[in-house]
Amino acid sequence: MTAPYVHESSYADEGVAIGDDTKVWHFCHIQSGASIGRGCSLGQNVYVGANAKIGDGVKIQNNVSVYEGVELGDHVFCGPSCVFTNDLTPRAKYPKGGDGYKRTVVRRGASIGANATIVCGHEIGRWSARAPWSPRTSRRMRSCWAFRRGSADGRANAERSFRRTWRAAPAGGRTRRATRG
After folding, report:
1. Looking at the predicted structure, is the pLDDT value of residue 169 above 90?
2. Are 101 and 120 in contact (CB under 8 A)?
């Protein structure tokens, strides 16, 4: 294991925890209280807000903003320029501070495409895939690529179909389930 690498043009404030084998490239800013796991890669111009949590083996591409209240599980992939929000009704004159931010959780192995906006207060399920340019609007959505077992070495081969499954709890509290194949 090697010590984390932080490029000289990047800033890591005091109180930041960065795991071994993690690389933080050019022009990044990591605010105090943020936690970054082992074996991660943060591309150019990545912002990690105060108290954000990033798991092990996470790959964050260029120009991504991970604001306070966001938790990325292990082996999450964030495509270029995707953004996580933390406030549904931001107002410059009436800031809410950390207590008013909504929590966003991205579970283990999820992939988020380029330019996707993840609206706060949602959970993205394990091994799900969010398409590029897609806003995250339903309360909880599990979307996944259909995989079948691969060769003897354990690699999975992607099938040509894409399947989305989601659950959203409307105002009445009833759960809706739909599948598109």
Report:
1. no
2. yes
DSSP assignment, residue 99?
G
Put residue 40 in one of left, alpha, beta given phi > 0 → left and psi -120 to 50 → alpha.
beta
User: Vertex 102, ends 98 and 105: CA angle to 5°?
Assistant: 115
Per the prediction, the chain carries an average pLDDT of: 80
Write the pLDDT tens digit of every residue in 30-76: 999 999 999 999 999 999 999 999 999 999 999 999 999 999 999 99
Q: What are phi and psi of 18, to 5 degrees?
A: -120, 125
Q: What is Dmax (Cα atoms) for the chain?
A: 59
Q: What is the dihedral angle through the alpha carbons of 170, 141, 51, 133, rounded to the nearest 10 degrees?
A: -110
Taking the chain, what is the end-to-end CA distance rounded to the nearest angstrom?
43
Identify whether the C-beta of residue 131 lies closer than 8 Å to the C-beta of residue 112. Answer: no
Cα–chain-centroid distance for residue 153?
28
